[in-house]
Structure formats: C-alpha cells, structure tokens
Design brief:
CATH architecture: 3-Layer(aba) Sandwich
Radius of gyration: 12 Å
Order of helices and strands: EHEHEHEEH
Number of helices: 4
Mean pLDDT: 96
Largest sheet: 5 strands, mixed
Distance between the termini: 20 Å
Helix content: 25-40%
Number of strands: 5
Structural class: alpha/beta
Strand content: 25-35%
Strand order of the largest sheet: 1-3-2-4-5
CATH class: Alpha Beta
C-alpha cells in the first residue's frame, strides 16, 4: 500500500507493521527515479506499507527526523524506527534492506 503522509496522519501510518517512509521532493531527480521502485514494492509486497512525505509540504516532519538529503528512506517496525538510508536504491537492494 502506498499512501501520502502528513503531520496529521504520520504517527498512525507508521504505528503498525513494516513501513518504509520516503522523504522526497517533486523537483528531486533521484526521488523521481525512486518513485516507480516504491510503487512496485508496494504492489508486490502487501505486508509493507510505503508512506511518501513531501519535504516541501511537511517541513516539520522532515526536521523531526533530521532529513538533510533526499530521497531519504526510513524503515519502521511497529512504530519504531529501525534504520534509514539516503539516495536511490534499486528494488533488489530495497527488498534486501527491508528483509534484514
């Protein structure tokens, strides 16, 4: 499932299960490249929720997580952050990261 996160729904979106949060911006080239990869992940792995957060619209959320470069991917398990990565990742690397 792929959903858009904002300050009002973010905490509830990450509260349950495995969640990949993508901090992105519409003007960011690597973010645009990552978009289809995340869409493919969300369609092929129903147990993984993908939450997209636009850093230009949700500056407070980006600041809360110390996002300095985008795309920034944050991995959550039942509401707790377990890891984060910066930059584009192909689907195989993304799946390996989630599985570990």
């Amino acid at each position: 499932m792929l959903v858009h996160g904002n300050k009002d729904n973010f905490d509830s979106l990450i509260s349950d299960g495995v969640v990949v949060v993508d901090f992105f911006a519409n003007w960011c080239g690597p973010c645009k490249m990552l978009g289809p990869v995340l869409e493919e992940l969300s369609s092929s792995r129903s147990e993984v929720k993908v939450v997209k957060v636009d850093v230009d619209e949700e500056e407070d959320l980006a600041r809360r997580f110390g996002v300095m470069s985008i795309p920034a991917l944050y991995l959550f398990k039942d509401g707790k952050q377990v890891d984060n990565k910066v930059g584009f990742m192909p689907l195989s690397d993304l799946e390996e990261w989630i599985n570990n």
